[in-house]
Each structure stands twice: as C-alpha cells, then as structure tokens.
Amino acid sequence: MESVIRVNLEQMSYDIAIAPGSLEKLGELITPLQLGQKVLIVSNPEIFHHYGQRVITSVEKTGFEVACCTLPAGEPHKTLETLQKVYDLALEHRLERSATMIALGGGIVGDMTGFAASTWLRGINVVQVPTTLLAMVDASIGGKTGVNHPQGKNLIGAFHQPRKVIIDPLVLKTLPEREFRAGMAEVIKYGVIWDGELFTHLEQAQRLDQMQFIEPSLLQEILQRSCQSKAEVVSKDEKELGLRAILNYGHTIGHAVESLTGYTTVLHGEAVGIGMVAASRIAVKLGLWGEDCDRRQLALIEKAGLPTKLPTGLNIDDILTSLLTDKKVKNKKVRFILPTEIGVVTITDQVSSEVIREVLQGMF
Fold it and tell me: Which terms in the Gene Ontology molecular function aspect does this entry carry (predicted)?
C-alpha cells in the first residue's frame, strides 16, 4: 500500500509519501528533489539506534555526503540551548545553502530540525521523516517549526515547509504504547474538526490503544485521512491567518497542562486529549453542540487509552493565567476552537473565564 498526498501551496508545494518500507528507499525518494550533496541527519539516541544506520546507508548509496546529529530526547530539551548542537555540526560540516537537514524522529526532533533549517544560512532544505504516530499525522506536515521558552510551548519558531514528508508505517512497531496512544489524540482531533467519516471509522474499531490491535488497512486509512485533513487545511491557510487555527483544537488548555507540569509528566497527545474533553464541555455549556456528541468524543478518547481528567495538583487559577501566554491569544482574549458537529468546529474568543473555570472544576 502506497499513497502520495500533495500539500498545495503558493510556493514550495510538496508531497507526503506514505509507504511501508520507505525508510530503506529514502535516498531514492529524495534524489528527484535536486538537493545539494550535503545532508545532516538529526535524530535522538533511541530512534537513531533503531533506524539511523538504515537511513545513512540509503542516503549514502545515492551519492549524498552524510553527517549525523543526535539530540537528547524529551520536551525539556526542546530549547535554543539544545539547538546549538545542530548549528555547531552544520558549521563543522560546512553545510551550504543547497544542503539539507533530515529530521528522523518524533514531533520534537521534527520541530527542532525544521527550525534549525529555517535559520541556518537564512533557510536551507529540510525533509521530514517522522517515526511516531503523532509526528506522522501532525507535526511533520505544515511547516510549523520551533522550540519552547520556559514560559510557554513553541513560543520561538518559524514557518518553514519541508521539501518532502516520508512516512514509513513499519517504524511504528518500535513505538512505545504510550506514544502510540498520544498520537491517536491528533487522529481523533481530525475526526472532530474536519473528517466526520474518519471519526465514524474510529468508532467502529474494536480498539485504538495499541497498534497490534489495529488492522494494517485501518492504520493506512488513519494515516491517509489524517495527513489529507492536515494537507487540505494547510493548503487553504499556510500561515495560520484564519482557518488553520482549527488544528489547535484541544491544544489551548492542552498546552497549559503541558507547561504547568513542566513538560515532564504529560505527553503532548495526552494533554491534547484532556484539552479536547475540556473544549467539548465548553461547547456543550455554550450550546454549540449536544451532550450526545460530547459523549461520543469522550468514548473515543477513552478507547484510545488517553487521560480525560486534569492531573492532580494543578491549580485552576494557574491554568487561566497560563492560557494568556498562549500564541493564540489576541487582544488579551483566549481563542478557543469549539466543535459544533462531528467534522465541524468554530473559532471564538467569547468564552468567559467563569465557563472555563466551571468546566475545569469538573475535570479533576
């Protein structure tokens, strides 16, 4: 099974290629892009241990000159300080403007490599090779890159589209179960905001919490439909001037939860799951959608084995304060993406702190 999804942009359109075994063909897949000879592969130690040599062999076989950089894993290391290592190696290996960085890893590696590529020599090529479900369906597509600031997630960043996204579903076999579940949060998100048919197919699945219980055909459909959803939204609004903000469904409160727990106890996808529960209940309180839809979404999130309650110890006042540092704040008003029906959402800044507080109090 192989599929190619086009991300159509005014400049620098590119393909998302989804194909089992594509890691071994990486060199062949990037050769038609007419890249420069030098490549810097950026990964983390665990992913590099599993797949680094395969990628090096494939890329060198097609004539590229390869250097490698491994960054410490985990959200606390997603900083400008860590990024310095990429710049140092780029300088050491004399990466020129025609050079390419290959992001081999999850969303953190993808975000950091993309940002490094966007800022090295004012912008060089980047190819995204995601190895987690979350990165495959979300982080690797759309050109959002960045690092965290101590006060908030991804506050430092740039839009820098990849030349290509290459997805090999087979690498998910080595993904820890918790990481797989975290990625499923973003898949559910697409069902709520854009693709009601995907939502229905997820409802029909027996289990969503472990990859071993998901048929290859359903996994392929999950990847294709999720990537297609993101590609369509990004094609309509590359720089998040309007529509693209819907991709932040569940992320508003989700980011606050991540930030307040120090990016150490709650995975990004888990935080998004919690954020989607909150957004759905806010939508119910505002009369935007019904309790039946709220229950359907909750059932899917639970089926994916994701948390639906706020972590113990969080303070609601701290969450409300944290919301004001979010990138989506405009004129000191927090913008929420709220569902109106399965497959459709709306963007609003008319959610009172009282409503937010009431919903959060019911989530402990």
Answer: 3-dehydroquinate synthase activity; metal ion binding; nucleotide binding
Q: How does pLDDT run across 32-62, given as a tens digit for each residue?
A: 999 999 999 999 999 999 999 999 999 999 9
- Mean pLDDT confidence for 323-349: 89
Please identify every residue annotated as catalytic.
122, 144, 186, 230, 240, 244, 248, 251, 255, 268
Distance CA 285, CA 268 (A): 26
User: 166 and 295 share a domain?
Assistant: no
Last residue within a domain, chosen from 115, 140, 174: 174
Residues 105 and 207 in one domain: no
* 268 annotated to bind ligand: yes
Residue 163 has pLDDT above 90, yes or no: yes
According to the annotation, is 153 in a ligand binding site? yes
Domain with 242 in it: what CATH number? 1.20.1090.10
What secondary structure does DSSP assign to 117-183, as a single string? HHHGGG--EEEEEE-SHHIIIIITSS-EEEEEETTEEEEEEEE---SEEEE-GGGGGGS-HHHHHHH
Does residue 212 share a domain with residue 188?
yes
Q: Is 240 left (phi over 0), alpha (psi -120 to 50) or beta?
A: left
Check whether 327 has a pLDDT greater than 70. Answer: no
Rounded mean pLDDT, 84-98? 97
Q: Do residues 337 and 288 both lie within one domain?
A: yes
- Stated pTM of the model: 0.95
Phi, psi angle pair for 42, to nearest 5°: -115, 130
Q: Is 265 annotated as a binding residue?
A: no
SS3 104: strand
Specify whether the CB–CB gap between 157 and 146 falls below 8 A.
Answer: yes
Q: Is 261 annotated as a binding residue?
A: no
Same domain, 167 and 32: yes
**Is 221 labelled as part of a ligand binding site?**
no
Residue 84 in this model has a pLDDT that exceeds 90: yes
Q: Which one of 126, 144, 174 terminates a domain? A: 174
199 and 82, same structural domain?
no
- DSSP for residue 311: P
- Confirm or deny that 186 is annotated as ligand binding: yes
Domain that holds residue 45: 3-174
